[in-house]
Write a structure and sequence with these properties.
Blueprint: H1 2-18, H2 20-30, H3 32-49, H4 56-69, H5 72-82, H6 88-92, H7 99-121, H8 123-131, H9 139-147, H10 150-166, H11 170-182, H12 186-201, H13 208-230
Length: about 230
Amino acid sequence: MTTNVQAHITEAHTKAQQSWFYQGWELFKKAPFSLFLFMIIPMVLAGLMQLLPAPYSIVLSKFCAWLLAAMVWPVMHHLDHHNKVSVTAIFAALGWSKMPLMALCGLTVFAFEVLVAFLLLGSQGIELTLWGKINNVAPWQLGVIFATSAPIAVALSLATACCLLCSTPVFAAIKRSLKVCLNANKALALLIVINALALFIAPFTFALGSLLLAPWLTCVGYYAYRSMFTTNG
């Protein structure tokens, strides 16, 4: 009897995980232009900051981009519950005081990209990531540098949602998120793979591929967060 109940619970949970992608698409369709805008603003501002002297400008842009990108989580949360976009929902989020520390932890993604660039290209990789010099760098090499950071980026993104929406302490949220991602189920593993592919094709499409997929993937991530962090306590 107990085995049958557990089997039904497991099956229901698996179906719920598989529905993340459909739910994410449905959420995206509610406000595609608004969500796209919230995705593009951090990228544009980060790009403008990188016009300042390197390498400090690049590090600063990554830090600020993480803070700005966090705005989309309360927007999606409000959209999911009220079927409309609300800018005021951004300021109503509980965990903004934790975001500066979370953004510092988010620099781990950039640090990993620097490491991969160095292993792949040597000193030229350091020039690429810290000074933005892309001479003699093939698109596939850029794609590999971006794509390999996807698992860390997804894990820290889920931790950001946990900190911002539930006011969970930063390191507790990161620890939980890393544990979840290291023991990733099929749905979460697929989400990480699709994110990696979107990052890999970015250099081949002038980042258009990533821009087009980012809103939907972030909406999928929102349901992954809800399923794995809030439903299970």
